[in-house]
Amino acid sequence: MLLHQTGPNTSPAQESDRWHQQADAGMAWVSVAAEGMPPFDSLLERVARARAAGFNVKPIIPGPLSLLWSMTDGDEAALEQLDGLLDGYDSLLLALGKQGVEWVELDEPQLARPLAPVWTAACEHSYNRLQRTALKRLLAVSGGALVDNLGLACNLPVDALQIELRDPERVLVTVLDRLPAYKALSLVLPASDLSAELVAQLQGVYQRLGPRLWLAATAPHDVADLAVRLGNSSRIAA
C-alpha cells in the first residue's frame, strides 16, 4: 500500500515544513503543486529544491482537458488550441523527467462532469499524446463522483487513477470492475469518516488489489492512521 497526500497549494514559507510532515507521516512523495499556465512558473525550481533536500517529489499539475475548459468555458472552438497546449505539457514532462521525477499527478476535475463527445475525444487524444515521456502519470478526478466518464477515465493510458471516495459501497464495485490490471487505484479518503465500515470496505479492496491500492488524504496523519488500522503499517511507504 502506498500513501500520498493531495490538497490545496501552500505558500512557499509553508512548503518546507509540509514536506517534512509528509515524510514523517510515511508519504511516498512530497507534493509540489503547479500554478497558472504551462510551463508553470517556479515549478521546476521548487521540484529541484525538494529533491536537493533529499525528498522524492510528485508534482501536481492541472490536466490539459480541465485547464483548456477552464480557460474557455468549454467553448468547442478552443479545441483548436489543444495541440499547442500539449506542446507545453510535453516540454514540462520532459524537463521533470530530467530532474529525476518518477511520478506526476494530472488533475482533471472536468471528468466529474458530463462531456460532449468532442471533449471526450480531446481527452483521449491528450493522454495518448502524453505517453511520449517516460514519466508515470496519475490521473486525479476531483470535485464530484466519477460517473459519466468512468469508462473513459479507467481506460486512459495512465499508470494510476485517483478518485474521491464519496459513495464507497456503490463506487468501489464499479471502479474495480473497470480498472485495468496494470493500473493502480488511489482513493482520496473522506475527511470526516474513517468508520469501521469504511475500514472493512478498504480491507476488501486491498485483498483484491494488493500494492495497487493507494490511499490519499488532505491530512497525512489521517491516512497513515488508517493504514495502521488496515493492518499494513509496515508497507505505508512502499
UniProtKB/TrEMBL annotation:
Residues annotated as signal peptide: none
Keyword Transferase: yes
Keyword Methyltransferase carried by entry: yes
UniProt-recorded Gene Ontology molecular function terms: 5-methyltetrahydropteroyltriglutamate-homocysteine S-methyltransferase activity; zinc ion binding
Domain Cobalamin-independent methionine synthase MetE N-terminal: 41-186
Coiled coil: none
SUPFAM superfamilies xref list: UROD/MetE-like
Pfam families hit by this protein: Meth_synt_1
GO annotation terms (biological process): amino acid biosynthetic process; methylation
UniProt keyword annotations, A-Z: Methyltransferase, Transferase
Region feature (Disordered): 1-20
InterPro entries: Cbl-indep_Met_Synth_N, UROD/MetE-like_sf
Name of the protein in question: 5-methyltetrahydropteroyltriglutamate--homocysteine methyltransferase
Organism: Halopseudomonas oceani
